[in-house]
Structures are given as structure tokens and as C-alpha cells.
Amino acid sequence: MSDAGSEAEGDAAPTIGTYEGSRNDQSERHGQGKMTFPNGDIYKGGYATGTRSGSGTYKWAKPVAVYSGEYAEGKRNGEGRLVFPDGSVYAGQFEKGKRHGNGTYTYLNGDTYSGAWSNDARHGRGVYTVAATGSKMDGTWEKGLLVGDGKVTHADHILKAKFVNGQPELPATITFTSTSYTMQVTDRALLGQSAIAVGGAGGDD
């Protein structure tokens, strides 16, 4: 989802929409303003020498979505909150228009991921929580998948294993929380539902 709109044309294309607001001596959009695009999208907020800069809000007309936060050089950059068309929400850091840094993504089904992001994907240290059960997948993520040493905490037991492409490798260990008994698992069938599916349903592609 892009909020570049026709604004990539800059002030050299005055027919790309309707602008209301401040301009500098070079007639560039500069300061506070409101831009209404031909497709119905609306941006309201700061500008610097013709591009979005500082705090602002971009509203997509179709499909309906909203970004509120910081901009730099015309792109989402810094702290912000992006509500996707399906209702899922990302709140956190952006860089050059992408989710990048630390942030929390809340999926349509209530699942959440809180942690590091890179180039719009879960990447780095983070925790994925399943809303329906409270189960948590904790570890290091790479391009959206859990990798390396990871831990999955359920209501009655904890799975620890090395993960490859989001899946636990054998051997693994399971510790039962009621007794603190730990068993080593070498049969994948014994893992049952110890590993949880991530992704929920939402704009986190």
C-alpha cells in the first residue's frame, strides 16, 4: 500500500490535485497544508520544499486506510500508526515508507507481534502472541519467520528448540509448568500443537 499518490510529480504538476496551505518563496508547498488527490486520497500535515515532512495524516479513499505520524522526504519515516483496510494496525517506527525498527502489529483476529521490523517484515528480536490462547512465540525473526533458538510458551508447557523457517527442529525440550518436569523430544509427532502458526489475518504480508 503506497501513499505516494500523484505527489511524486511534485509542484511541477499543478493539476495532480488540490492543495490548500502554505508555500515558500519558490511557490513550493512548505509548512502546513492539505492535499486532495483526484482519487479521493487526502493528506493533511507538514511540508518542506514541496514534499511531506514532519507530522501528518494520510487517508486513502479506496480501500479505506489511515496513516498518522511522521514523514521525511515525502515518505513515512519515524514514529507512526498505520490502520490497514482490513482493520489490522501497526504502531511503531517507519523508515523510507516501510515498517522498520520497533513496533507492534495487531492482526484482525487480535494476535499481536511486538518487536523488531525490517523492510515491512518481522526481523530481529520479537514476541508473537496468539489472542485466543495467550500462547507466545519468542525469539529472533528473519523475514517474518522465527529462526535460531526460540521459545513457545503455552498455558501448560513451554517448548524450546532451534527454529528453521518458523518450524521447530529436533531435538527439542518441553517443560510442563505445573511440575517443572522437562522432557526431550525426538519424535515430531510428540510436538503436537507446541508450535503455533503466526500471521493472523491482515496486512502483514
TrEMBL record:
Keyword Lyase found: no
Biased composition (Basic and acidic residues): 22-31
Domain of life: Eukaryota
Pfam family, one: MORN
Keywords carried by this UniProt record: Repeat
Disordered as annotated region, ranges: 1-39
Record's compositionally biased regions (Acidic residues): 1-10
PANTHER family: RADIAL SPOKE HEAD 1 HOMOLOG
Full protein name: MORN repeat-containing protein 5
Organism listed in the record: Powellomyces hirtus
